[in-house]
Design brief:
This protein has helices at residues 18-28, 91-101, 165-173, 227-239, 298-304; strands at 8-15, 32-38, 46-51, 60-65, 78-86, 105-111, 114-120, 126-131, 153-161, 176-182, 185-190, 198-203, 217-224, 248-249, 253-259, 265-273. It is α+β, with helices and mostly antiparallel strands. A hairpin with a 2-residue loop joins β10 (176-182) and β11 (185-190). One of its GO terms (molecular function) is dioxygenase activity.
Length: 310
């Protein structure tokens, strides 16, 4: 069993409109935009990052807003719900806040003894807020949501799979342990993690497969401290039979990718070097930052990319 993985690093999804996406996460959820850059493989498409003040691993939601992309089709083989952690007793605040800001709410529920508020993003993305009294991570305080109610970071992701057994074994190999089970949902968590420690596996053998599009999660990334730890994880996964990419420089972290038995794309990302490598912490996300290989496109991209307004 691996010990290098310390919880979630980031979740990357797809959207249809950059300005709408930016407004939702910065104004309606109160997160900080910590980076505006572009997709490495499609530089005419933004890659937007939202998180806490520093872009701390375990708090980072990222998006590829592809203009005019079709809507995703929800099903199995994907991340179903991305859940954020909020302080205990704050769900009434969020219900009122969402009502005032036009956010579609599915409703409250209780799962594994936790109170949750389920809601949707602008592209039908499945989200939840989970009350967690033990979460002492610091929130972003300048997003328009009071600090006593603000999002702390990720709580968990939920994987919807035809058969969760093989992916559950993979997660256990990655250092996760089953901590609870309810019906067709198995809850796994990593010990001594970064606060974003939980993965739920929902087995839905009769469901149809998901189709990637706006509102779909593209991949979920797990955090390791540094490149040395990442290489240890890569070797162990390859020795177990997984097809893992070479290490890829993503400017703000180093990444490896592999496909899980259930079809979800996993990434293992380093905590280093972080989002302040090319911007002062006080000004994260304010300027368009380009990967070195796309610097020559700056004048074109500054005219072509949709203005974000803030």
């Amino acid at each position: 069993m691996l010990t290098q993985i310390k919880g979630l690093h980031h979740v990357t999804s797809m959207a249809a409109d950059a300005r709408q996406n930016n407004d939702f996460f910065t104004h309606k959820l109160g997160l900080r935009r910590v980076k505006q850059t572009v997709n490495f493989d499609a530089p005419d498409v933004y890659h937007l990052y939202y998180a806490d003040e520093f872009g701390t691993p375990g708090s980072v939601m990222t998006y590829f807003p592809f203009p005019n992309i079709g809507s995703g089709r929800h099903g199995v083989g994907e991340v179903g719900t991305t859940a954020f952690s909020v302080p205990e007793g704050t769900l009434p605040f969020w219900e009122k806040h969402f009502s005032e800001h036009g956010v579609t709410v599915e409703g409250r529920e209780e799962k594994f003894g936790e109170k949750r508020l389920k809601f949707f993003g602008p592209d039908g993305d499945g989200f939840a807020l989970v009350e967690d009294k033990a979460d002492n991570r610091a929130p972003w305080l300048k997003g328009g949501v009071p600090g006593d109610e603000a999002i702390r970071g990720f709580h968990s992701v939920s994987l919807r799979l035809k058969d969760g057994g093989a992916t559950e074994e993979l997660l256990k190999f990655m250092g996760y342990q089953e901590v609870d089970r309810s019906g067709n949902i198995s809850r796994l968590a990593v010990k001594n993690g970064n606060g974003a420690d939980v993965v739920d596996i929902e087995s839905l053998p009769g469901a149809s497969f998901a189709g990637l599009g706006a509102g779909s999660v593209h991949h979920v990334a797990f955090a390791v401290e540094n490149r040395a730890k990442q290489l240890e994880v890569r070797k162990a996964l390859m020795d177990t039979g997984y097809q893992v990419t070479p290490v890829i420089d993503r400017d703000y972290f180093w990444a490896i990718y592999f496909r899980t038995p259930g079809g979800v794309l996993f990434e293992v990302a380093t905590n280093e070097p972080g989002f302040d490598r090319d911007e002062d912490t006080a000004h994260l996300g304010e300027a368009l930052k380009l990967p070195m290989q796309h610097q020559h496109l700056r004048s074109y991209l500054e005219k072509h990319l949709q203005p974000l307004d803030n």
